Amino acid sequence: MQSFGPLPQGSPVGANPVSDQVIVEMPDGPVGLAAATSTQPAAQDLPPTGSPPRRRIIAVVAAKGGLGKTTVATNLAVGLARLAPHSVVLIDADVQFGDVAMALSLEPALTLPDVVLGNAVDDLMVLKSSLTAHSSGFYTVCGSDQPDAGDRVTGDQLGHLINQLADVFQYIIIDTAPGLGDHALAALELATDAVFLCDMTVPSARGLRKELAVLDRIGIMPPARHVVLNLADRRSGLSVRDVEATIGVPVDVAVPRSTLVSVSTNRGVPVLQEGGRSPVARALDRLVARFDAGAPKKTFQLHKRVDIS
Predict the structure, then answer these.
(1) Is residue 284 part of a domain?
(2) How many domains does the chain have?
């Protein structure tokens, strides 16, 4: 894929050292490092239409709210942008209460309702100019800050947008609303990959089990599945194997609970953008590595719980 010039950079924000506990230990991956800003994309920075590598449409989903979908989606965008600069787009499909703009410190001129209800519907060049660029080297379609405006977006309109962007970008990431509403199902129907989130609570694990069962039953399970155990904490009273036994499938990546995540969210700077080698960053890098077509295939094996705080 053609390489494009860097986007304007903002002032980097450093990460503060934080004590973490890790429950699952897996091989390390690369760490992303960049800085955030808000800008409209220049036409020459966008990837051209042509015959690019195989598209990856990645739906980030969870049965319940509060499990860190936006944290995972934004960090995935930062990490994938290092693999494929200017070939990644992140869509905020939580149409009522999406937080992608806040999580990335962006102030978009146009949001999802503007994009799917305006001239961009029929004009790819207008669509390109409607995107909001992030200095890490990816683009966003941010959600509206008005829930009633977001309600105007239908699942069919979201699906049309995803197909449009798949003609241009190598990676399309969709941050969905909790549950299996029209927008989440529209994203999953088109997705090549689904990132399923749960935490170390019984309601969350049972919710994911039901979600997986429903998708299997209605026949729209994406070809590739990635299960992320977020907010992992041995003090919860459950182990990783307990969660796996409940959901019925293996956990692929465990992201430890850490105050570093809430600090990065409040700053509007994703963990992988700040850099560092924290357990949270290493876990998120392992998730990114699962989408790297050029990386050697790894077997992600669960190990005994290790406390390296």
Answers:
(1) yes
(2) 1
Instruction: Dump pLDDT digits (tens) for 11-27.
Output: 333 333 333 333 333 33
Residue 30 inside a domain? The answer is no
Residue 267 has pLDDT above 80, yes or no: yes
Three-class HEC string of the chain: CCCCCCCCCCCCCCCCCCCCCCCCCCCCCCCCCCCCCCECCCHHHCCCCCCCCCCEEEEEEECCCCCCHHHHHHHHHHHHHHHCCCCEEEEEECCCCCCHHHHCCCCCCCCHHHHHHCHHHCCHHHHHHHCEEECCCEEEECCCCCHHHHCCCCHHHHHHHHHHHHCCCCEEEEEECCCCCHHHHHHHHHCCEEEEEECCCHHHHHHHHHHHHHHHHHCCCCCEEEEEEEEECHHHCCCHHHHHHHHCCCCCEEEECCHHHHHHHHHCCCHHHHCCCCHHHHHHHHHHHCCCCCCCCCCCCCCCCCCCC
Flag whether 39 is in a domain: no
Question: Using one digit for the tens of pLDDT, what is the confidence trace for 285-300?
Answer: 999 999 997 654 433 3
Which pTM was predicted? 0.80
Residue 90 is part of a domain; what is its CATH number?
Answer: 3.40.50.300
Q: What is the pLDDT of residues 35-76, one digit of tens each?
A: 333 344 544 455 554 444 579 999 999 999 999 999 999 999
Please check whether residue 27 lies inside any domain of the structure. Answer: no
